[in-house]
Each structure stands twice: as C-alpha cells, then as structure tokens.
C-alpha cells in the first residue's frame, strides 16, 4: 500500500506531460500543417507531372490535346480536398510539418520533381499485379465452388 501514492503521482505526472503534447497536435494544428504541405507540394503540380509522364505514352500528334483534356477533366480541387482530409486524419501536425520541411528543401524539391516519373513507372505494375491477384483469387474461388458442387 505504500507504493499507491507513488503510483498516483507517476500517473498524474505522466498525464501532465502527455496533455501538452496532445494540445500541440490539435485538429487545427493538423489542418494548418496540411495546408502548409499543400502549399509546398501543390496537387496541381503533382498532377501536371503525372499527366506529362502518362502523356509520353500518347502519340506525339495527340499529346497536347491529351494533356489539355486531362487538365480540364480531372478535378484538382476535389483531389486536394481529399488529400487534405486524409492527411489530417492520418498524420500528426509534426509529421505534416516534417513533410513540408523536407519537400520544401533542395533535396525534397528535387525528389518531388521526379515523383511523377516514379509514379508513372510504378502504378502500371501495381495495377497489373493487383489485377493478376484478383483473377487468381477468382479462379481459386470458382474452382472451390465447382469442387464443392461435385
């Protein structure tokens, strides 16, 4: 029983140390940090880079029209809103600020310029692998259903 007051003191001290850390990560702080990130890395720039990479697969005679059509059709504002909301739900204010700091730096800006190229190289393979996996799963389930029916 002599340890009870010490445990209470430790719990109270831990709570007091934890509360300021939580206060620094309020919803408003995360929203402000997400806004800062999106100023450093605008969705429109990321999409322009991605469209340019995808556009390399379009015949040169049609590329300019493809890029103009994509810029007109894809709703940057909707994607930016979705991105901001997901970032606020997923990351802490410190993490968002760290991302903004990195992508605002020389190395981060250089990496971001290459991101469209990277995504254009990776996404088709990811899509193909997911499609292959879905087809395999469908075959397995079809086979299992057929064997149960027999």
Describe the structure.
With 150 residues, this protein is mostly helical. Helices cover 88% and strands 0% of the residues. The protein is built from 7 helices and no strands.
Describe the SSE topology.
Blueprint (H helix, E strand, L loop, with lengths): L3 H20 L3 H14 L2 H13 L4 H14 L2 H15 L2 H12 L1 H44 L1
Helix pairs in contact: 2-5, 2-6, 3-4, 3-7, 6-7
How much of the sequence is in beta strands?
Answer: under 5%
Task: Quickly count the helices.
Answer: 7
Assembly of the depicted chains:
single chain
Helix content, binned percent? over 70%
Question: How are helices and strands ordered from N to C?
Answer: HHHHHHH
Which class best fits the helix and strand makeup? mainly alpha
Low-confidence blocks of residues: none
Mean pLDDT: 86
Gyration radius, rounded: 24 Å
The beta-strand count equals 0
The largest pleated sheet is described as: none
State the shape. flat
What's the end-to-end separation, in Å?
69 Å
Structural key phrases:
7 helices, mainly alpha, 0% strand
Offer a quick outline of the entry.
The chain has 150 residues and is mainly α. 88% of the residues lie in helices and 0% in strands.
């Amino acid at each position: 029983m002599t340890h009870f007051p010490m445990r209470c003191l430790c719990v109270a001290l831990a709570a007091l140390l934890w509360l300021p850390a939580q206060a620094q990560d309020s919803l408003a702080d995360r929203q402000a940090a997400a806004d800062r990130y999106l100023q450093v890395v605008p969705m429109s720039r990321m999409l322009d880079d991605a469209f340019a990479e995808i556009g390399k697969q379009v015949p040169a005679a049609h590329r300019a029209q493809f890029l103009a059509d994509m810029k007109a059709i894809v709703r940057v504002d909707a994607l930016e809103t979705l991105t901001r909301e997901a970032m606020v739900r997923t990351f802490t204010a410190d993490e968002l600020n760290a991302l903004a700091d990195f992508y605002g730096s020389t190395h981060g800006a250089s990496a971001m310029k290459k991101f469209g190229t990277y995504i254009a190289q990776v996404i088709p393979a990811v899509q193909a692998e997911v499609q292959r996996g879905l087809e395999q799963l469908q075959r397995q389930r079809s086979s299992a259903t057929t064997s149960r029916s027999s």
